[in-house]
Amino acid sequence: MKLLQLYIDDIIKTALAEDIHYTDVTTDNLLDDSHRSEAYYVAKDDGVLCGIDVARRVFELVGADVEFTINKKDGEYIKKGDIIATMKGSTRTLLKGERTALNILQHMSGIATATNRCTELVKGTGAMVTDTRKTLPGLRPLQKYAVTVGGGKNHRYNLSDGAMLKDNHLDAYGGIKPAVSALREKIGHMVKIEVEVRNFDELNEALECGVEVIMLDNMSCEDMKKAVEITAGRALLEASGNITLENIKEVAATGVNIISLGALTHSVKCFDISMKIKAEK
Prior knowledge:
By secondary structure, the protein is of the alpha/beta class. It has eleven helices and twelve strands. The longest helix has about 30 residues, at about 90-120.
C-alpha cells in the first residue's frame, strides 16, 4: 500500500493549523531565522516503525530548511535506543514541527507494532489479520497504511468498497434473504456481499444466499469451529468481536479465514519515540 501525497499533506496541514494557529509564541520570540540545530529521533521501546516519511514531510511543510536523514525505514523492527533519523537545519522549523511529527509517527508505529504482534501470533494458521472502519476521524489513510506495514490486511476502506449487511441493516430490512436479494438486484457484478451472523440459523441462511463473506459476530471459539465445519469452504469466514492478544491464537486455530480487530486503530498504544535537539556547547 502506498499513500497518496495528497492525503498525507491534507492531514499534516490540518494538524499543524491546529497546533500552531498563527504563531509559535515561544519559538518565534526566542530564536531568529538564522539559528541552526541538530536533532535526532530515538526509539524508547521495541517495535515496528511506521510513518517516518510522513514525519519528514511535516518539517517540509512547516518551514522547510531541514536536512532529514532516515536511518530506519517503515516496516523495520527497531529496538530501544536506536537512532531512527537525524535532522539538521532551522531550529524554528524543528521546534514547530516536533509535536505534530511525533504525534503521527508514534501513533502509526503503535498501530504497526500492535498489528505485527497479532500477525506473529496467528502465523501458520492461514488466518489473516485485518483492521475495521473503527478509525479516528481524518486519520484513516495513515491508520490503514500502518496496519499493512505491520503485516495485516485492510478491511473495507469505506462504505463504497463492498456491501456489508450488519445486524442493524438486517433488523431494519427484515432478514438476511430479503436483504441479500434486494442488494443483488441493484449492485454490480464486482461488488461482494458480506453478512454478519449471530447464530447457526443465520449462518445457514447466509450460506443458502451464496454470499461471499460471513462475519461471525462475538461467537465462542467452540461455535466458530462448528461454523467452519458447516461452511466447508463455501464462503470466507470472518471472526469479529472481543478479540485480544490473549485469545487471537485460539481464534485463528478454529479455521476462520479473517480476524478483524477494531482495537488496532481505535485504541492502540502509541509507540514511544523522542526527538532530541543537541545542546549548544
